Amino acid sequence: MTTNGERSIATHASQNSTIISATNLVKVYGEGETEVRALDRVNTSFQKGTFTAIMGPSGSGKSTLMHCLAGLDLPTAGQIFLAGTRLDDLKDNALTKVRRDEVGFVFQSFNLLPTHTAKENILLPLELAGRKVDQQFLDYLTESLGLRGRLHHLPSQLSGGEQQRVAVMRALISRPAVVFADEPTGALDTRNSHHLLSYLRTASRQQGQTIVMVTHDPRAAAYVDRAVILSDGQIVHDIASPDEELVIRAMRRLSGE
């Protein structure tokens, strides 16, 4: 479904290689009278170095789509490729390795280990993968996210915005193929939300990082290259270079306003 003001994916994105693709993706929960079709033949792809928002009403399937794309949940049917690897037919051990090596996660609840310092939390993905720390990249992220002098503090000694930035550093430190962010601004005030979204946009444009973010906040549209809007398990709008007003209009049409 395409409306006035909705455009094809931006030229700079289409020139990059596809890093994630989903073909005829179906996810069903339950069976019989209790069956819920969370995803209904979804076809989409995401290009390297782009920042995409997945949006939609509650129950639209946006979180389910992200979980399937990230290998956190398996689809009922369809194919998913991430960084050249097909996810939907992998065994558990192989899927765990792909998530460890190719995927970074930023969660609304931060998911920081309370007994670890900020630095220890950040470096955890490298430790689990047995990889060395790139000190230059660590220093760059620390400066970019304004965390110098805070790395040796426990999460309980950090503000909510600082904890979220630690979570972002943890997701980026291993230079994954894709960073998935699940409502990353949901627990932040307007100022910290702006800073976080601005940094994610910078990571995408300057570092070539692919970022896929689930969000309900139309203000986030101003920071992304693309907004994919779901309703009843299907993609109903795919908007390049979105803005807040365009997303609000699209969401209102879904609710019949």
Protein model, in words:
The protein is α/β, with parallel strands linked by helices. It is 34% helix and 25% strand. The chain contains eight helices and ten strands. The chain has helices at 11-14, 62-69, 92-102, 118-129, 135-144, 160-172, 190-207, 244-254, and strands at 18-29, 36-47, 51-55, 77-82, 85-86, 103-107, 178-182, 210-214, 226-231, 234-240. A six-stranded mixed β-sheet has the order 6-7-8-3-9-10, with helices on both faces. It has a four-stranded antiparallel β-sheet with strand order 2-1-4-5, covered by helices on one side. A hairpin with a 2-residue loop joins strand 4 and strand 5 (85-86). The chain starts with 10 loop residues before the first helix and ends with a helix.
Structural descriptors:
single chain; 257 residues; alpha/beta; six-stranded mixed β-sheet; 34% helix; disordered N terminus
Please provide the count of β strands.
Answer: 10
Task: Identify the overall geometry.
Answer: globular
Taken in chain order, the helices and strands follow as HEEEHEEHEHHHEHEEEH
Question: Mean pLDDT score, rounded?
Answer: 89
Note the total helix count: 8
Question: Helix proportion of residues, in percent?
Answer: 25-40%
What portion of residues belong to β-strands? 25-35%
Which strand order spans the largest sheet, edge to edge or round the barrel? Answer: 6-7-8-3-9-10
- Kindly report how far apart the N and C termini lie: 17 Å
Biggest pleated-sheet summary: 6 strands, mixed
Radius of gyration over C-alpha positions, nearest whole angstrom: 18 Å
Unreliable segments of 5+ consecutive residues: 1-15
Structural class: alpha/beta
